[in-house]
Amino acid sequence: MNMESSEIWSLKTISLKAIYTSLEKILFQKNKQKQDSSKLLKRNLEKKINKRRQLENVDHVDLMNTYKKKNKEIDFNQTEGKNILPLMNPELMFEVPEDIDNWIAVLCPDGIRCYVVAKNNKTKAIATSGKTINCFQSLFPYGQCLQDNRIRSRRIQTVLDCVYSAQLRKFYVLDVLEWLDMPCTYYDADFRFSFIESRLNLIQGINKVSEKNYFPFEMAPRMVTSDFYQYILDNGKFFPENVNLDRIYFYNPESYYISNTPTALWLKPFMITDVLQKPIND
């Protein structure tokens, strides 16, 4: 190869490398723009949904019975829950995990997402903002004023992650953060769900309205995702009295209770067909 041919070959090689590098940059920029666009769409969608839920919650709060003590209304503007961990905030599912069929699907009705705290012989429903939205009696340990004051404890508490259905006047339990002062957030989802279900089953009358239990509590329906597909085909109604299915949470069975985590995801019912590629009943 003479000098001239060598120079031409070198120039061609440099030119090809430059073209290849340029193509890589273009592809990278396109992927980055696509990711940024997806993140923006996700944020906008979450803002719209959260705004809608906040507006709905304002209306629903007025429907909850207030608990009266000595003929005086509880001040619901007081801030509570300062020492409670943030509620788990599942991410919107854009990409389907490979093992999604093994995840746990939890059906969430229309309602108010809130903490329920049983402590000091009373039970409080606390909004995600930390404001007390209701104070009432329940059959949870230390959750009712009719209990013997000698067992009153300011330290021992139970904290649940719930959704309150104003239409049904019922709390649906999504998860548990603490039970009788035992932290549950570092246990995996599979254990937490089994544990809180077993605790509820042991409290006779917790699912009914009574003098000692102002609101019924029950587990939000849940199942393995592989069973969920057939379940949504077989069932047109998921909750009594035509209460709408608001969303479906998907939990990795090994996930801890963390505020923001990719191991907990959610979808609206209308998203299932597009995202999971599964048919649903309209």
Could you walk me through the main structural features you see in this protein, from its secondary elements to its overall organization?
This is Snurportin-1. It comes from Sipha flava. It is found in: Cytoplasm; Nucleus. The chain is an alpha+beta fold and 282 residues long. The chain has two domains: 1-73; 74-276, DNA ligase/mRNA capping enzyme (D-amino Acid Aminotransferase, Chain A, domain 1, 2-Layer Sandwich), CATH 3.30.470.30. The chain contains four helices and 14 strands. The protein has helices spanning 3-61, 189-202, 225-234, 272-276, and strands spanning 68-69, 72-73, 91-92, 104-109, 112-119, 122-127, 132-136, 157-165, 170-179, 182-183, 217-219, 222-224, 245-251, 264-267. Strands 5, 6, 7, 8, 9, 10 and 11 form a seven-stranded mixed β-sheet that branches. A five-stranded mixed β-sheet has the order 3-14-13-4-12. It has a two-stranded antiparallel ribbon with strand order 1-2. The radius of gyration is 25 Å and the shape is globular. Mean pLDDT is 78; it is low at 5-14, 55-63 and 65-79.
